[in-house]
Write a structure and sequence with these properties.
The structure is a homodimer of 161-residue chains.
Chain A (H helix, E strand, L loop, with lengths): L3 E20 L4 H11 L4 E6 L6 E9 L3 H8 L3 H4 L3 E16 L5 H13 L6 E4 L3 E7 L3 H11 L9
Antiparallel strand pairs in A: 1-3, 1-4, 2-3, 4-6, 5-6
Bound molecules: threonine (2 copies).
One threonine sits at the interface of chains A and B.
């Protein structure tokens, strides 16, 4: 089918919070996002991969200006959630390739990941949706990554303001 | 703001493939999805959380009828990709809560995760997009999970065919 990549979306001032080694059993995800929701934290990506030895990591992304609110929300929840460590990284940017009618994400993902690899940009986190493949990368590579992705997908880039 | 959850989407016959402990350096994601794209594998979710000790896990989901094509595509790529193990799980279903105008995913995620927790359903993988929070769960809990999510979000459920 025709894969139409319509654009590159990005957000510069992102951060990620990872709760390292939380128990991988029912109720834990709820115990993390309940407090975040109640504190009005603006959570964007939520990423959980499969676990090992009954544990897994939980990562969420948010604007870097939300970090204080997120850590305040999670303070005092360590016993309820049971994380081993909490890693806060405010050095990331989010970049997404937006496509309409992607039957499979493999083609768009492969082209996106190749462009980033060619720049030597490490991909820290990946999530997908029907219309997007999104990654978190080191913020200092954002402009380079966005230029390379426009070129890889044959898109005109808006001139910088 | 008003969170409008418009529906629950689900896909019963899903599978996940996890490449365990791949090197977390530029080019690895490209080396995984290049072969999958060339073989025409219909990849849905791609999930990568942050790494540790220079390694991370890469998981992708696909229809269970695509597993043979995916494993064939990756055969012979072990040296190039460098995974420690490959875990294939054809017992999962995908469930998503679809919402319009979710400014933060925390509220919808928290309600979804609480509903699944109340059923004792373990959440194996989580990804998000602007309009969806998606999870992979054990397929045998799919009907229970879909009913509980309709109830939690006050949605009418279509009668089963
Ligand atoms: C880790 C977390 O997602 C857990 N599996 C739960 O169901 O809540
Ligand atoms: C693990 C994989 O995503 C790696 N970090 C890469 O950039 O290709």
């Amino acid at each position: 089918e025709q894969n139409v990549v319509s654009g590159i979306a990005y957000s510069r001032d992102e951060a990620k919070v990872t709760l390292v080694k939380v128990p991988d059993r029912p109720g834990i995800a709820a115990s993390i996002f309940g407090p975040l929701a109640r504190s009005g934290v603006n959570v964007d990506m939520i990423v959980q991969n499969i676990g090992a030895d009954g544990m897994t990591d939980m990562t969420f992304s948010l604007g870097k200006d939300e970090i204080a609110k997120a850590t305040a929300a999670l303070e005092g929840e360590k016993a309820a959630i049971g994380w081993t460590d909490i890693v806060i990284d405010d050095t990331v940017a989010k970049v997404s390739v937006v496509g309409i009618g992607m039957r499979s994400h493999a083609g768009v993902a492969s082209k996106m990941f190749n462009a980033l690899a060619a720049d030597g940009v490490n991909i820290k986190v990946i999530t997908t949706s029907e219309i997007k493949v999104s990654v978190l990368i080191d913020r200092r590579y954002l402009e380079l990554a966005v230029r390379s992705l426009h070129a890889a997908f044959g898109l005109e880039q808006e001139p910088a303001a």
